[in-house]
Amino acid sequence: xxxxxxxxxxxxxxxxxxxxxxxxxxxxxxxxxxxxxxxxxxxxxxxxxxxxxxxxxxxxxxxxxxxxxxxxxxxxxxxxxxxxxxxxxxxxxxxxxxxxxxxxxxxxxxxxxxxxxxxxxxxxxxxxxxxxxxxxxxxxxxxxxxxxxxxxxxxxxxxxxxxxxxxxxxxxxxxxxxxxxxxxxxxxxxxxxxxxxxxxxxxxxxxxxxxxxxxxxxxxxxxxxxxxxxxxxxxxxxxxxxxxxxxxxxxxxxxxxxxxxxxxxxxxxxxxxxxxxxxxxxxxxxxxxxxxxxxxxxxxxxxxxxxxxxxxxxxxxxxxxxxxxxxxxxxxxxxxxxxxxxxxxxxxxxxxxxxxxxxxxxxxxxxxxxxxxxxxxxxxxxxxxxxxxxxxxxxxxxxxxxxxxxxxxxxxxxxxxxxxxxxxxxxxxxxxxxxxxxxxxxxxxxxxxxxxxxxxxxxxxxxxxxxxxxxxxxxxxxxxxxxxxxxxxxxxxxxxxxxxxxxxxxxxxxxxxxxxxxxxxxxxxxxxxxxxxxxxxxxxxxxxxxxxxxxxxxxxxxxxxxxxxxxxxxxxxxxxxxxxxxx
Length: 583
Hints:
By secondary structure, the chain is mainly beta.
């Protein structure tokens, strides 16, 4: 009968037995050393203990009596009696005993079973396997060794050979040989073929080799690595291709337009970049002739342009001789011109100081300045016959005529100068007071030498520094308007003109109302003429005590020379110093 009904009967018997005895029925874990199934499934059996015969359990908790497999509810029993190392079978189950001794053994069967009975002299150890097992080690007998029984149900028996007449020749694949699984009768057991056998895609290209079996049952692709070149560059703008690692050579590609394929070979050469759509570099191109390739290296060097058909710059070119390279800033600074064989302009040249210019003379700036000086003389100017502007002698009875000492002009004797450049007056002292000056009267002279152009001249002499102090060093004498107090002399082409009276009559030569300054102006004076304006002075400190420090003062002139609309101004000055006469 089926083991399920037998087990139910056993459990019913056990429950009745428990109710009639004091010792309980026990299922205990296998008490021997840990065991491992020979099948490798890790199943650990349960030792089934029963006091048996209704009596109290023995000290060893053995199953008393001689239990059989049908007592446990199993359909079949295969017994080895006496037990020993070896194999017994009933035509269905094969039981193999190994490691046998009088106290223990190991077992194995040809299919998994549910129980093993190890019978001793008067008791047994029953091993229940759930799930079923097909082998175990280290099982023990309770005392002695009578026999070993293997219990199994009909349903535990494997079916008949399911693989009989099964053809698995077409069930495998290129890399696995198929065989029938006896448990299922299906061709599911696969055995890998040897590594290197051909399989799959037979393509053999630059990036793809024929597929082969790997020896583990899989068909492997044999693609070239990404380091394998599959297409070399066909030009400076062509990109060489490498395999993609999955059997393909990428499409032919070209360098992008940012890639330089021909570097510039000179200042007038244009570097070329790839087009992005061709393996070839574009044709060599050059900068056109509007492009400067050599900048000017100086005022006389021309900037050079590209020729338009060459990588090299055009030959260096210079400005021709005579080309102005530095303009004149004024008449005392002539322009400079190129020599024709030098890149630089000649050094800036100036007219030498003192060279006559339109308004006077050149200075070191360079500039054309008024040529005016200031000094003092002992005497007034003495002239020969006085002529008017037309060269006609004036009437000797003219009120403005001055006495003449000689037939030739005498412009007066200058005062001597001290180390500081002051004009020296000498005071005669008596008891510390000033008795007189030497000279007794003296003249402040402004001399203007005109330049190369006719000009209008004005002179303003300011002598307030010498007349408005306390005490005055000198005073204007006589205190009247010119020509008594001032003269205006013109020397032109060797002829001396005293035009003082004429100018005074016209109001062009005047003394200030406070007699601290004199002013004269004359229009259209000849080029290169000399103009002199005299102002008379007389001692101003006579009768005063000579001070501890020699008194000094300055006369200042403002001279303006006007040529057309341009006026040039000069401010000459001269100092006076009064020193005592040495005894």
